[in-house]
Specification:
The protein has about 325 residues and is an alpha/beta fold. It has two domains: about 5-115 and about 235-285, D-Maltodextrin-Binding Protein, domain 2 (3-Layer(aba) Sandwich), CATH 3.40.190.10; about 115-235 and about 300-320, Periplasmic binding protein-like II (D-Maltodextrin-Binding Protein, domain 2), CATH 3.40.190.10. Helix content is about 35%, strand content about 15%. The protein has helices spanning about 5-15, 25-40, 55-65, 75-85, 160-180, 190-200, 210-220, 250-260, 260-270, 300-320, and strands spanning about 20-25, 45-50, 70-75, 115-125, 150, 185, 205-210, 225-230, 235, 240, 275, 295. Strands 4, 7, 8, 9, 11 and 12 form a six-stranded mixed sheet that branches. A four-stranded mixed sheet has the order 2-1-3-10, with helices on both faces. Strands 5-6 form a two-stranded parallel ribbon. Strand 5 (about 150), helix 5 and strand 6 form a beta-alpha-beta unit. The model has no long low-confidence stretch (mean pLDDT about 95).
Length: about 325
């Protein structure tokens, strides 16, 4: 299906002729996206690079009021929503997303999402035998996992706040109180990648919060990992155009393309998440029951609830003591 790109955005991108994107997709997947976009729009000199924590660079550019970065994503929607009222992002609603579920965009157009993902329990097959693999959240409470569970401390980064809110809504605070008795090992780096590295190395047995497609990519590459998503928890990451973007029209064109049938097909085919556009084939769909739907809290809702979640973690896990 062909797409008609907005004329003003297309011509503006031609004039600007460049685009810089900080990607949270892994380097190989980032390059696939960069290459496909460049083939479609060869007049844009597209610099795309993987950065696990793009917000430091974004903060510096925001303070300076100028810089080279135009767009970033897919990154933590909770963090993006928290910065939305501070003037960090340039509002834009891609024409290609106006018929999509509202969960994939900010009501004021300050961020958009190209896909959803499952929030999975990941485990190391070096440490966990197939017959012992967790199939439910109650399985995390078994005595065999004492001291072997790795969790993110949301007081430090909060990238797992979406997971914490979903579990809280489904199982309540009593579950977290039981989990606290498992001598949790705490992760403070703020990126799923590092936690999965630790599992693959056999340093820990289980990480209750992870991302299904990220684990599956590693499994497909032969890493000793497994995953499950018994509560069908999901999340949407965010993409933004910086208010200080030197090439705003090129960034808008990138947004249009990512949400077009062409961009969405690439996301589904290359295992980059569940495409936002319905009906697009998706590699990950085969790992879920037909018709399964994720329980998703949008970034704005998670941002509103984060203080409550942090207070719960303090109360349940840390008793107001610093890590």
């Amino acid at each position: 299906m062909s797409t008609t790109w907005p004329a003003d955005v297309l011509e503006g991108a031609r004039r600007e002729g460049a685009l810089t994107w900080l990607s949270a997709w892994q380097p190989r997947e980032t390059e696939k996206v960069r290459k496909a976009f460049t083939e479609r729009f060869p007049f844009v000199q597209f610099s795309a690079r993987y950065v696990s924590h793009p917000f430091d660079a974004i903060e510096a550019q925001h303070r300076a009021g100028r810089g080279e970065v135009d767009t970033t994503g897919p990154v933590s929607g909770t963090t993006v929503a928290g910065l939305a009222d501070k003037g960090y992002w340039s509002p834009y609603v891609p024409t290609t997303m106006r018929d999509l579920d509202p969960v994939f965009r900010d009501t004021a157009g300050r961020w958009y999402s190209t896909h959803s993902m499952g929030m999975a329990i990941a485990y190391s097959t070096k440490r966990v035998e197939a017959k012992e693999a967790p199939r439910s959240y109650d399985d995390l409470l078994l005595s065999r996992w004492l001291g072997q569970i790795l969790m993110e401390d949301i007081r430090h980064w909060g990238t797992s706040a979406e997971w914490a809110l979903g579990v809280y809504q489904k199982l309540g605070e009593p579950f977290f109180r039981k989990l606290a008795s498992q001598s949790i090992q705490w992760y403070t780096e703020g990126a799923v990648t590092g936690a999965l590295d630790a599992l693959a190395a056999g340093k820990h047995a289980i990480a209750p919060w992870s991302v299904d497609y990220m684990v599956q990519l590693r499994i497909d590459n032969g890493e000793p990992l497994g995953w499950t998503n018994p509560l069908l928890l999901g999340r949407v990451p965010a993409n933004v155009i910086l208010a200080t973007a030197p090439h705003p029209n090129a960034a808008r064109l990138f947004a249009e393309w990512l949400l077009s049938d062409e961009g969405q097909t690439l996301i589904g085919r290359e295992n980059l998440g569940f495409p936002a556009r319905p009906g697009i084939p998706c590699y990950m769909a085969k790992f879920y029951p037909k018709g399964a739907r994720f329980h998703i809290n949008g970034p704005a809702e998670v941002s509103r609830q984060k203080a409550m979640l942090v207070a719960m973690y303090e109360r349940v896990f840390f008793s107001n003591k610093a890590l």
